[in-house]
Amino acid sequence: MIHENLRRRLEQAPYNRSLGLRVEALGLDRVRLRIPYSDEIANPGGALHGGVIASLIDTGGALSAWSGTDVKGDIDSSTLDFSVNFLAAALNEDIFANAEVLRRGKELTYSSIDVRNAADKRIAAGLVTYRLFDRALVPPYAERQRHDVAPDPPATLQTVRGANMFVGLGFIAKLGITVSHAFDGSALLHLPLGADVLDANGAIHEGAIASLIDTTGALSSWSVVGLNMSYKASTVGIHVNYHAPADGEAVDAYAMTQRRNNEIFLNHVTVSGQDSKRVIATGSVTYRIVVND
User: Among 42, 59, 106, 112, which is least packed by CB within 10 angstroms?
Assistant: First the structure.
């Protein structure tokens, strides 16, 4: 019954429902998930957006952590850290994630997630660190808090040609992400608080945050060379730390390209609450643009 309740809660979360995410198998420390292909979650050309794959990995790690516990009470739970390496494109096809718990600690669960297509071709590999505990068992919990605020965006906001088109198609358009700045190695994007980006608790889903980080890092990279869709480009990998839930407010993401090494761009991204300015997540995005010139 515990597992059935977990399955139902996860599949009915608005963001997961908008992706079409399904739990195909759920047992102790092992989970199998599927996202069916649709044009709404793909880039032009039929490749599933990297944020969709990252969302599947994040969700697989969370569900595998919950699969081995019946914790009740005043629960604190969230992904602390996750990383993904993108190994191949998923073109016009469903994707499947197999998540396995590597280790359980007192509060932390470490899981490995393998994403493949129906032909068993590996699409991505991920690692998720998930935290789950009962606040009542840690009385000083409320006193042991510290939150940082986001760095200030550029004083002058500019956008390279094509930046709005970059977020105006496919999955990113579905999320409602907009651009206010993308120039000379930095980018500032916004994710509104819409029904289709929420998790089961009413906060912005961690997968949607990861998608925003991926997109902001990518656009920061493009702002260095100029948007040219004749260039081959893709996210190589992302790494995200989640600091706090985005509960009841839209979020901003600010990225800076800290290093360009020929076709490789290394970007740092900070996501913050649009009103509170509290840091929600930080991430790094490794992006590749093959310039033909």
Answer: 106
